[in-house]
Amino acid sequence: MSTALVVIDMLEDFLSPSGNLYIGPEAGRVIPAVAVELERARAEGWPVIFVCDSHREGDPEFAMWPDHCLCGSQGAAVIPALAPRPGEPVIAKRRYSAFFGTDLDLTLRERGVEEVVLVGVCTNICVLYTAADARMLNYSVTVVAPATASFDRAAHDFALQQMETVLGCQVRR
Ligand code: ZN
Question: Ligand 1 centre from 111 Cα, in Å?
Fold first, then answer.
C-alpha cells in the first residue's frame, strides 16, 4: 500500500510565539516530533504533502478565531525548521478539512496513495476534520499522536480517541 505523509498547518501563526494564533508551549514538543516524521517519510521515499491554512481578509472563520494565516503573509508560511523541499506539494486550504475545496484528494490519487499519515496542528480541529474526510474517502489513516498538538489538551485527547474509535484511524502513541 502506497503511503504519504500529510503535514497539517505547521505554520508561523500557530507555532511561533509571535504568531496570531500561537498554540502555546506544546509547540516546543510538536515541532521536533514532526521533524522526525518528515525525516522518516523522506528516507522511505514517501510523497510528502503540506496542507496550509491560507485565509482571505474577512474570512468567515475569523468570526470564531482571531485573524490568522492570511494568504501571502509571514504567518501563513511553514516554519523554517520544517520547510518543504522542492517537489513537495504545498496545498492551500481555507477550511478545517484539508480535503474541502482543495485538490488534496487528486494529488494523493495521482501518486497512487492509499494510506495517509497525518501530523500537525491542531489535533482537534484541522487534523480531526482532515482525518474524517480521509476516512470518508476510504483512505487508511494513521495519526502520529506525539506529532500532533493543540492549545487545548482535553480536546487533543478527545480528538485522538474519536479518530481511533469512531473514524477507524490507527493512532500511533
Ligand atoms: Zn484557519
Answer: 27
